[in-house]
């Protein structure tokens, strides 16, 4: 009897391992994997063209929109995998195809604004709900029948946790991860702004109908669809955001947005848990997610427009709009929003004065910098042959040539 049980346990472990391997292979069958790289590639090229038009040079490398997202993606994917496998969340291929199509359509114009799970999964939920309502249970089309046979509560749980992942991406954004731009302000003058734009691919394991895995407990899987056996699939989910910071610093904007999205995720998760007992709460959770995420974006735009431009040219020094990575300016610890008052002891008010003062000494440079607290600090470093001739600083110009 003991040997029989041992063989049964070993067989179950082998089945699970084999399904995990098959799940990894199924990952590459999802079009979102390839769309992620295509979308970010073209978004990066579009951004680089704008940088060259605004500033005469490329500022950030290609694929910079995904910088510092790996750790959040892997940790978020691991937590979602434990959640989806532990609860037994089951998807079928037609549902995954629907989510993939919605994701691609919402990012077709290279804008990441609608890559929040509130929109991609939220709209997918509404389509599935409409199919179930319109067609009922009587249809001869297998695809529609498969789309009807979905446990919608599982959608709301995934939406809530992916909103938390989006919040983490926002909260981790620092000065080096937003993109400077120049636009014409309301008074006809050129002012600077920063674009917060990031995308991440979140891979997580979930169950699919048909496979080697059988239910190991009466309660598992909780969110199941028809079928007695299950397989495993690694699902790639695309999460992103895009916001403009004109009246506030980009870091302050990212923190404010991140905190609000995090609160929204908790509310959605709470509604999702309640939907296990009251099915109508799943629709409430989705509507809260969609309306809440849109309200957060609208509230930010309204507050940002009401503020005076944060990156307007100043009469008290040269305002730093951005820093080119891997240049002396980054090494000096200069930050966007600070003002350079003096260069090598000389007051500077224009780029020409900055350039001339910088080259009064070829061996080193000393800068008097006014930070965002109104305090002067001094930075100094040696200059070496071949380094960026303007230190790698992007200024908020009065006009664009």
From TrEMBL:
Q: Which Pfam families has this protein been placed in?
A: PDZ_6
Q: Which PROSITE patterns match?
A: PDZ
What is the top-level taxon of the source organism? Bacteria
Question: Keywords for this entry?
Answer: Membrane, Transmembrane, Transmembrane helix
Domain PDZ residue range list: 317-373
Q: Which InterPro entries match?
A: PDZ, PDZ_6, PDZ_sf
From the record, give the transmembrane residue ranges: 27-45, 66-85, 91-110, 117-135, 155-171, 199-223, 229-245, 281-298
Q: What is this protein called?
A: PDZ domain-containing protein
Q: Which organism is it from?
A: Radiobacillus deserti
């Amino acid at each position: 009897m003991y040997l029989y049980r041992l063989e049964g346990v070993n067989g179950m472990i082998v089945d699970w391992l084999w399904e995990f391997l098959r799940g990894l292979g199924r990952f590459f069958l999802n079009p979102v994997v390839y769309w992620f790289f295509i979308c970010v590639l073209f978004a990066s090229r579009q951004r680089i063209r704008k940088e060259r038009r605004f500033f005469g040079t490329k500022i950030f490398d290609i694929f910079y929109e995904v910088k510092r997202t790996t750790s959040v993606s892997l940790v978020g994917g691991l937590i979602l995998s434990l959640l989806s496998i532990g609860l037994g969340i089951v998807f079928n291929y037609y549902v995954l195809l629907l989510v993939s199509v919605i994701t691609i359509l919402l990012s077709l114009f290279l804008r990441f604004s609608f890559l929040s799970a509130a929109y991609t999964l939220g709209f997918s939920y509404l389509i599935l709900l409409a199919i179930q309502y319109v067609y009922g249970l009587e249809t001869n089309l297998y695809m529609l029948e498969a789309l009807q046979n979905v446990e919608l509560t599982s959608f709301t749980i995934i939406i809530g946790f992916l909103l938390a992942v989006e919040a983490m991406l926002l909260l981790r954004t620092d000065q080096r991860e937003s993109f400077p731009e120049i636009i014409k302000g309301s008074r006809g003058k050129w002012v600077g702004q920063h674009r917060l734009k990031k995308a991440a691919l979140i891979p997580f394991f979930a169950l699919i109908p048909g496979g080697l895995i059988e239910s190991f407990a009466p309660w598992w899987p909780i969110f199941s669809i028809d079928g007695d056996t299950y397989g495993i699939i690694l699902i790639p989910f695309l999460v992103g955001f895009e916001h403009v910071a004109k009246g506030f610093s980009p870091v302050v904007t990212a923190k404010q947005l991140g905190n609000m999205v995090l609160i929204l995720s908790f509310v959605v998760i709470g509604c999702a848990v309640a939907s296990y007992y009251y099915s109508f709460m799943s629709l409430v959770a989705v509507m809260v997610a969609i309306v809440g995420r849109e309200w957060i974006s609208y509230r930010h735009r309204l507050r940002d427009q009401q503020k005076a431009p944060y990156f307007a040219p100043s009469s008290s020094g040269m305002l730093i709009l951005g820093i080119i990575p891997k240049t002396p300016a980054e090494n000096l610890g200069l930050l966007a929003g600070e003002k350079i008052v003096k260069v090598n002891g000389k007051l500077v008010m224009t780029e020409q004065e900055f350039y001339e003062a910088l080259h009064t000494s070829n061996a080193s440079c000393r800068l008097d910098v006014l930070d965002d607290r109104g305090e002067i600090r001094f930075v100094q470093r040696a200059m070496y042959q071949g380094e960026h001739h303007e230190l790698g600083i992007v200024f908020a110009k009065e006009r664009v040539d």
